Amino acid sequence: MNIIVLVKQVPDTESLLEVDTANATVNTQNVKWIINPYDEYAIEEALQIKEAKGAGSVTVVAVGPDRSEQALRTALAMGADTAVLVNDAAAEGSDALGIAKVLAGVIKEMPYDLVIAGVRAVDDDGYQVPAAVAEYLELPLVTAVIKQELGEGKITCHQLVEGGSLVVEAPLPMLFTAQKGLNEPRYASLPNIMKAKKKPLEKKRLADIGLDAALVGTGSAKVAISALALPPERKGGKMVTGDTPEALAAELVRLLKEEAEVL
Amino acid sequence: MAQVIADRRDVEFVLHEQLNVGDLSQHEKYAEFNKKTIDMVIKEARNLAIKEILPTLKEGDEQGVKFENGQVTTPESFKRAYELLCEGEWTALPEDPEWGGGGMPRSVALAAGDYFNGANYGFMMYAGLTHGAALLVEHFGTEAQKQTYLRKMYTGVWGGTMLLTEPEAGSDVGALTTTAVKNDDGTYSITGSKIFISSGEHDLCENIIHPVLARIEGAPAGTKGISLFLVPKFRVNPDGSLGEFNDVVCTGVEEKMGLHSNATCSLTLGGKGKCIGTLLGEENKGMRAMFLMMNEARLLVGLQGFGCASSSYMNAINYARERVQGRHLLKMMDHSAPSVPIIQHPDVRRMLITMKAYVEGMRSLLYYTGYLSDLITTSDSDEEKAKYQGMIDLLIPICKGYVTDRCWDVCSLGVQVYGGYGYIKEYPQEQLLRDSRILMIYEGTNGIQAMDLLGRKLGFNKGKPIMDLMGEIQKTLVQAKEFESLQPMAASVEAALNKLGEVAMHLGGKAMSPEVLTAFAYAHPFLEVSGDVVLSWLLLWRATVAARKLEKGAKKKDQAFYEGQIKSAEYFTQSVLPVSQGKMRSILAANAAAIEISEDAFGGK
Ligand SMILES: Cc1cc2nc3c(=O)[nH]c(=O)nc-3n(C[C@H](O)[C@H](O)[C@H](O)COP(=O)(O)OP(=O)(O)OC[C@H]3O[C@@H](n4cnc5c(N)ncnc54)[C@H](O)[C@@H]3O)c2cc1C
Known about the structure:
Radius of gyration of chain A: 22 Å
CATH class of the largest domain in chain A: Alpha Beta
CATH architecture of one domain in chain B: Orthogonal Bundle
CATH architecture of the largest domain in chain A: 3-Layer(aba) Sandwich
Mean pLDDT of chain B: 97
Strand order of the largest sheet of chain B: 4-5-12-7-6
CATH class of one domain in chain B: Mainly Alpha
Strand order of the largest sheet of chain A: 11-10-9-12-8-1-6-7-13
Distance between the termini of chain B: 56 Å
Oligomer: heterodimer
Distance between the termini of chain A: 57 Å
CATH topology of the largest domain in chain A: Rossmann fold
CATH topology of one domain in chain B: Butyryl-Coa Dehydrogenase, subunit A, domain 1
Number of strands of chain B: 14
Helix content of chain A: 25-40%
Shape of chain B: globular
Bound molecules: flavin-adenine dinucleotide
Largest sheet of chain B: 5 strands, mixed, barrel
Structural class of chain B: alpha+beta
Shape of chain A: globular
C-alpha cells in the first residue's frame, strides 16, 4: 500500500510571532519552524498502516521554500520512506487553491492508494487545502478522522462531529484528514534521524509537474490578506459586587449592556 | 513563548561557531555527523526533553521514590519517559553503534545531554549511571562479559550503578570492607554493605548490573587491594535470560534535601551468602579501572549541575521580563510613573548578567572538554592525543568542582530573582537549587576535586598540561587583541592568566614543602581562581567570535545575541576577574590561620 502524506512547515507554536503590518504578513525572521502538528498525526497514521501491513511506502509531500526541507527530513526521521518538495518561486503567495493545485499536480504523477493530511494547519487555519486536493484528484474526502479501519479496497473512518462521531465508508483511493486523537505521533529516534539524511528527497519545480505557473502564485490567488493584527491583549477581569444575588445579577446585566455592549 | 532549559541559539553557537564540531565529520569515524545532522539530533533531543522529560521534573520531586519490601518504585511519569528515551536510543549517544551506542562526537552528545539533564537530571541519572557502568564493561570486560551485558546496558534494557561508598568508606574509598571470595568456578562470592547507591534499586529495568568495589580475601590494605566486580541483581543464564535473584537486597532509601526522584539506596550484598560476581579487569586493579572512568562520571556531574543552572537562568530571565514591580530608579520620586518589569532594576540586571556569564562560560567549558575527547578520536598523532588527554585530566576537577559550585550560586541567584516566589514550591527555582546541592558532594566532594587539581593534576607530567592549556589561552588572546573593543578584556584575561601562573608555581612549591598543610588549605581557593581564569578565557573566545561576526555584518536577528556575547565577556573580565585577582593575592599570602588554629580554639565544646 502506497500512502502519501501532505506536510506543511509552520512556525513553532513556541515562537514569538511578530506581525509585519506593512506587508500584511508574519515576520518570520525570528521564527523556528516545525511540522504542522496535525500533519504529525497524518504521518504517524501512515506509518502505523504501513507497519501493520508489513509492506508499502510512505511518501511525504510539501510545497514551500528551501527551509521546508527540514520538515520533510523530520518526517523521514519519524520513518517516512521518501519525500518530495515542490520549491518554485512562482508558487509563492499561492492561496489554498493554488497550493492544492500544486499538490494535486505532484500526486497525480505518483502511484498511491491513500492520501492523508492534517485536518488543518495551525498557521493559516484555513482547512481548505486537503479538500481542494481531493477535489482536483477526484478522490472521496473524509475530514477530521479520529479512527480508521482499512478494508479490502475501502476504508471506514470515524469522523469527529459535534458531540460524537460519524462512521463513514469510502472506496480507495481516497483522502482523509487527521484530527487530534487519531494517534500519538512518535518521536524521531536517533537511528532514524541518522537514516533520514540518506533517504531520497526529490525537489521539483512547477515545470517538472507540467503545471502552468500562471495558475498559481499571487497572481492567480482568489484570496488576498488585506491586514493582519495580533489579538488584543486580554485585560484583567472585573469582579461584580453586590449584597444579594438579585443585586449581583442586576449589576451584571447593567455591565453587559453598558460596558461590554453585548446585550 | 519563552525558551526553557537552554537557550538554543547559545547551544548552536558553541557547537558551530566556537568549536565548529561539524568539521569533525571530515574524519571517517564521524563522517555521518555533518552540521545538518548534528542540528537535527539536537533538535529532536530538545523536542523529547521538553515535551516528555521536563514534565516529570516537578512530579518526580513531589512523589519521590517509594520503598516497600525491598522494592523501590520510581515516580509514575518516569516509566513512559524512560521507555521513550530507550526507544529513541538516546541512552548511550557517543558509544560504539556495534554495541547499541549512537556513535556521535562527545561534544554533540553533551549538547543533547544539556537538554536531557536540564529537563530532569534525577530521571536521567537512571540512564546516566547505566551508561557509566557499561563503559566499565566495554573497557575492562572479557568478551563473555561484554556479550552478556553490554548491549542490554547501552540500550537501557538493564540498568547500571556504581557501588563504592560504605559507611566507613566515603571520600576514602580505600577503607572499604566489602569482601570477595573466589569460588572454584572462577566467580566470586561477595559480602558487604554499600550505602548511598544512586539508582541502586528501581522498577524501570528488569535487571540492574552493579559494578562493585570489594577486597579479595587476603589482598593488601588500602586502595592497592581493591578489585572491581560485576554483580547483577538477577543472575543471567547462558542464553541471556534472567535467572535466580542474586542476593543484592535493598534495605532502604535515603530521605534527602533534593534529588527526590532518584533512589539513593542501601544495599546488602550476600546477606544470605548467595551473591555472586565476576571479576571486571584484573585483581587488585579496581581503583585504576575506576579512575579511568572517573573523568566521564565527573564530567556528567558537571553537566547535571549545569542543567540546573541553565534552566534556572532561562526561568529567571523570563520571569524578570514579566514580573512588574516598583518604579524605574530614575523615576523613583515620580509617583505617577508606572511600575516596570524587574529586568529594568540595576540589581536584578546584576544578577541576570552574572547568571548569563557563568552559564555561557560553563556551557563552553563542558562542550570543549567533550570536544577534546573528539580530537583524541580524530587525531592520528600520539603526541597530540597525549596533549588533549592531559588537558582533559586537568580540566576535569574544574568541570566537576568549580562548575557545580558555580551552579549552586547561579541557582541561588535564580531563586533571588523570583523574590518570595523563588522560595515557593509552585515555582521551579527552589527545586533546582535543592537538586543542585548534592553535585558538590558526590563523585568526589569538591574539596577532593580541589586536592586533585593541586596535588595531582598541576604537577602532572612536569606541568605540561597546564602549559598546553595556557598555550590555548594565548591563542585566543592574540585573536581577541585584533579587535580594539576587546583589548581591555584581553588585557584582564592576560593579567589574570599570568597571575595564575605565579600562584600555581608558588602553591605547587608550598605543597612540597613543610608548609604543605597550609598549601592544601588553599586548594579550594586555587580551584576557584583556576576556574575563573578558564571561564574568562572561554568567554573572551566567544566574544572574539561574536566581534568577528558583527564586523562582517551579522543578520539582524543575530546582532543582539552577539552583543550579548561581548557583554558577558566584558562583565566577567571587568567585574569578576578583579575579585579573582584579590583571591589570588590571598593565596599568595597563604595565611596559615586555618592550620595553626588549635582544635580547641574552634570552640563549641
Ligand atoms: C544522594 C547521594 C548519591 C550518592 N550516590 C553514590 C553512588 O551512586 N555510588 C557511590 O559509591 N556513592 C554515592 N554517594 C556517596 C558519595 O560519593 C559520598 O557521600 C561522598 O564521596 C563523600 O563521602 P562521605 O559522605 O563519607 O563524606 P566524608 O568522606 O566523611 O567527607 C566529609 C567532609 O570531609 C571532607 N574530607 C574527607 N576526606 C578528606 C580528605 N582526605 N581531605 C580533605 N577533605 C576531606 C569532605 O570533602 C567532606 O567535606 C552518594 C551520596 C549521596 C548523598
